[in-house]
Structures are given as structure tokens and as C-alpha cells.
Specification:
alpha+beta; Nucleoside Triphosphate Pyrophosphohydrolase; four-stranded mixed sheet; 9 strands; 19% helix; globular
Length: 135
């Protein structure tokens, strides 16, 4: 019997000049790749569109969403054995990136910033670095 809990999240991957867009939520100490938890019967794209708009005030163009990969790690701030499953997408968007009311700061991070990000984000950063996208 499996008693480990999994937290299902969708993430938005935006890379410029070898750095990835990351956010610091109010009250948190680590930066996270933008995105969040799926609500009831939402699809991946619906979650991506909603979460990115809520956090970054831009509109994802759903037809441009491209699957990057799915990553899993111990969830930060949760009891041991609770993992986060992060399904990542890249997509075009309209509007200007700006922090919403729940986001304290938007920052572009690279591989040198591993000490200030979550465990699952470390796996994503490493994966993108190995593909030559993240410095």
C-alpha cells in the first residue's frame, strides 16, 4: 500500500540568455519556477494558463504550449515522503511579465542559483543545463 502523497503541479519554463524565469512567493524563502497546483478537472494547459496569469499577469497562448518533461522530488516544507510532481511546459504569451499580488519578486536565475531554489527545480535546472539551454 502506497502512503506517500504526491502534489501535482504544472510549471511554466521561460528561458532568456541562458537564465530561467523564477518567482519568489510572498512569505517564502526559495524561488520557484512559475506555475502551481491543478484545480479539480483542469487539463495541463488550463492549469498553465490560469496559474501563469495569476502569478505573472500574462496570457499564455495555449496552442503554443510545448511539453518539456516531468520531474519529481521531495516537496519543500512538507513531511518526508511527500513529493511534488512538476510537469513542465514552454509557451508563448501575450502581455508584459509582472509580479501579481501573491508574488514578491520575479528573477532570472541560472545554475549558480541552486542554493535558493526547491529540490524539484534543481532537477529541472540540471536537465535544462544538460540540454544546453541554461547556463
Amino acid at each position: 500500500m502506497k502512503n506517500n502523497k504526491e502534489i501535482d503541479k504544472i510549471a511554466f519554463i521561460e528561458i532568456k540568455d541562458g537564465k530561467i524565469l523564477s518567482t519568489l512567493s510572498k512569505g517564502k524563502t526559495k524561488y520557484y519556477i512559475p506555475g502551481g497546483k491543478r484545480e479539480s478537472a483542469e487539463s495541463d494547459k488550463q492549469t498553465l494558463v490560469r496559474e501563469v496569469f495569476e502569478e505573472l499577469s500574462v496570457k499564455i497562448l495555449p496552442d503554443t504550449a510545448e511539453y518539456i518533461g516531468t520531474f519529481s522530488a521531495q516537496s519543500d516544507g512538507e513531511k518526508e515522503g511527500i513529493s511534488v510532481i512538476m510537469t513542465c511546459y514552454r509557451a508563448k504569451y501575450s502581455g508584459e511579465l509582472k509580479a501579481s499580488s501573491e508574488i514578491e519578486e520575479i528573477r532570472w536565475l541560472n545554475l549558480k542559483d541552486l542554493q535558493i531554489i526547491s529540490a524539484v527545480d534543481k532537477k529541472i535546472f540540471t536537465f535544462l543545463n544538460q540540454k544546453g539551454e541554461l547556463m
